[in-house]
Amino acid sequence: MSESSAAGAARNPDLLTVYCNDHLAAATGGVELVGRMLGVHRGTPYEGPLEQLLDELREERAALRTTLGSLGLPVRQYKQLATWVAEKLSRGKLNGRLVSRSPLSDLVEFEFIATAVLAKRAGFETLRALGETDQRIDTGLFERLIDQADRQHHWLSEARRDVAAAVFGGQAQAASDAADS
To answer: What superkingdom does the record give (predicted)?
Structure first.
């Protein structure tokens, strides 16, 4: 018999609580950041995809909360609050401008959220794998969220290249396309 019990209890529930709450806090930060990005990009070609991303991030956050509940693990509200506050404070960072928004902010935000999507995808993979031995976890849900994260990352990578070209010049082509030339 494996180190998980026949009832499907995960090993190291204290560590799993920290892990899931960290991913939940990151999801909260992602919702806040994409909400801000959406406000900046209203009326642009990015508006529709950012609205979809925001809806999906909210769904993912709810899925993490549901999973914590299914596992009988507590939600650490202080982590949610800390992430929310940190996102608000990050708006005060300087990107070469004191009063107005810098175009560099757009690039940094697209880079950040694209990287964060890869981290959350890894978390979804971990939970899907745990679901193979713990019946309380909906492996189908995490399969779908992994596929969703792949689609999100693909779009964000394309958008990031476009924003980088708009800020610095150059071609907005994918690195793999550039390697073929």
So the answer is: Bacteria
Cα 71 off chain centre by: 22
Token digits of residue 163: 């924003």
Residues 56-69: b if buried by 16+ CB within 10 A, e if exposed: bbbebbebbeebbe
Q: Is 72 within a domain?
A: yes
CATH of the domain at 50: 1.20.1260
The domain total for the chain is: 1
14, two tokens: 């204290």
Assigned token pair, 112: 């950040």
Q: How far apart are CA 168 and CA 154, in angstroms?
A: 21
Mean pLDDT of successive 10-residue stretches along the chain, which has 181 residues: 50 92 94 94 97 98 96 79 60 56 89 96 97 95 98 97 94 58 44
Residue 98 lies in a domain: no
Closest CA to 154 of 49, 83, 4: 49
The DSSP secondary structure of 48-102, one letter per residue, reads: HHHHHHHHHHHHHHHHHHHHHHHTTPPP-HHHHHHHHHHHHHHTT--SS-SSSPP
Domain hosting residue 21, numbered range: 13-90+103-171
User: Domain for residue 82, yes or no?
Assistant: yes
